[in-house]
Specification:
This protein has 500 residues and is an alpha+beta fold. It contains eleven helices and 22 strands. Strands 1, 2, 3, 4, 5, 6, 7 and 8 form an eight-stranded mixed sheet that branches. A five-stranded mixed barrel has the order 12-13-16-22-21. Strands 9-10-11 form a three-stranded antiparallel sheet, covered by helices on one side.
Length: 500
Amino acid sequence: MGTSTTEDRSEIAFFDVETTVPTRSGQGFSILEFGAILVCPRTLLELKSYSTLVRPADPSQITSLSVRSNGITRDKVECASFFVDIADKVYDILHGRIWAGHNIIRFDCARIREAFDKIGRPAPAPKGIIDSLTLLTQRFGRRAGDMKMATLATYFGIGKQSHRSLDDVRMNLEVLKYCATVLFLESSLPDVLMANNSVSPSRARGSCSKSKSSSEGVGENLISSSPTSQETGEQNPILSLVTHSAAEVSNLVATDTTHQDPFDMHTLSDEIATEVLQSNANIGEQHGPDSPNMSSIAASPEGCSGFAGFLEPDEVSLTSLSACLVPWFHGSQKIELMYKDVALQLFCSHLRVRFGVSTKFVDNFGRPRLNFVVDASPSLCRVLDECDKIAQKFSVESGSKSKWWHVVIKFGKYNNPTIRVHIPIMFNGGNEQIMTEIYQRDCSGTTQKVVFSGLETTELINLIRPVKLVDVFFSFDSYDYQGSAGIRLVAKKLIIHSEE
């Protein structure tokens, strides 16, 4: 498709797409802008650039929500080319090169493949990929905050993210340069520089700054900044940053089209579990699907639980429960359960563990998803059943056709009600960090925070065993993915009672 087999394709293709924001289940995305730069892998100099707005087949997909996300209006794309008209150029830029971008595995790569599928053409294939979100989280840590591009740019004083394709890929390259420089200096003088770094990479949080400041040109533009470098065959250090091979990229793009940011502090569990496709017959093995997101709560109503903002089930008036749509990742929305106009959070004491912590289910990177099953009291079931009914009704009215998984599952000969409690984990490189606050209470009533000494998952399995009693503080998280929808319970705090 316009690609010469003899052409040197050693350059790294940094690219980004801006898209519409789906407003109903199953609507999908449409590309509104494509931007890319070709970068020399040895000097990191920009060699060429290309950007163009793209007219969607259905302009009505450009809603106010979409405009707020990237500033691209219907008027701006009215005279732009359809994707089929620029497909050859996009293919020529991407095919056979190393791809680079921020969170491109989960978003941009999937959108490119979808766009080519829609026009009946084979999609370009990379020979490797550098996803700077994964790469920087592993090697730079979370010292800059939530690892969004805007936060990283603010951290290094580069400027504000415009959320326009060409601006964003150039900012991505600059962020990589800054991070690489810091890591190089720290490796050169680790005793001095690392000792002065008092911010823990796994604890730090930053702010995200956003603005719109990009030229609006509809026309394509191709700029040659310098001659293409000729590779000498020697190993280029930049190639060590490749995080996925071509085969891995193909598999990931084909099977994972979720668009959440897995390392956002609001999305502590980064993918939806494969058990969503399995049978729900055995609750010890499966108890409904996982969701990729755990919402943070800004404010909550007063309760009597002793942990601010959490209500006991008996305190909840069912008539005060409701649901609404709240912003989610990439401008999309999700259902949030509310109590008196504030996000609902519950506290339940002395829940008996039926099945201990399970690590059977893992994400696409082989990392465990932690959860355990407890018996649910009648008062808790009363609230959860009402929440289920409200959220399911809201989901259907919003246009979702997905199968609804109930949060309360009857188990055993006597249909004992049970619930699954999820424990979010954050991964920083090869290290895991349990994000739930965990305490132990002895027989005298003394409560102490658990300090993990090594492998947190292994120690947690030993702590939460069947028959033990736990006090659980949890929030609600909704999901709607690949034909399955529901709400899940995410533990914010656990108090584990010692055996008498």
